[in-house]
Amino acid sequence: xxxxxxxxxxxxxxxxxxxxxxxxxxxxxxxxxxxxxxxxxxxxxxxxxxxxxxxxxxxxxxxxxxxxxxxxxxxxxxxxxxxxxxxxxxxxxxxxxxxxxxxxxxxxxxxxxxxxxxxxxxxxxxxxxxxxxxxxxxxxxxxxxxxxxxxxxxxxxxxxxxxxxxxxxxxxxxxxxxxxxxxxxxxxxxxxxxxxxxxxxxxxxxxxxxxxxxxxxxxxxxxxxxxxxxxxxxxxxxxxxxxxxxxxxxxxxxxxxxxxxxxxxxxxxxxxxxxxxxxxxxxxxx
Length: 286
Description:
13 helices; alpha+beta; 2 domains; Arc Repressor Mutant, subunit A
């Protein structure tokens, strides 16, 4: 059994030390550790096997891992996934729970047989990722600010997403829905949008809409926008195409609508996103 330690996974001057994991091929085998961690699944789906129980994770799942948890990740079908992992020193978690001073709440978090999961909306997930990425940025320029910001963020996470949490039993997607979602990854279907989704599902519009709410916690329109925005984001990062070309390539017929959706999810305009990403990449060069 692999056991990771805070001394090797968290910088000595930090309380929380986030990092991105871009593929299941890069995750650790079954392991435990002597620190806490939060992780957010941002793209794709996977199985999280923890303490002998399988949790089916999808985008927006925020998972709170305790030091005694034993866990690993497995693929869910053919999809890969991407998630943000944030190791936390025991001290910052314990201080946050002591500050909240809710013993029953703390016991529920720490003593449950399996880690609790909070299901974030697309907007909440974007905000959460941005908060952890802010810690990543501060850790390179001002570690004291990074520590202070981390303390506030941990308390915010507990109060907003885990206090009075309704434990979600992750239902397995119906085969028809899994099939439709899988086929929507194809460019021709993504471009056609809702028409393709309803066609592929073989169900009524109302049935599909209810299933998306039940299993994915979003509407079909939100799901398709998310697909298209992921394509647009990757094109901004990997090509020199103009914004108009990227919008059309990603399936947005209206450039104004594309700007609005992109800024809503990423909190910056497409060209600013590309510029900032380029600057961050250059700042890492030796």
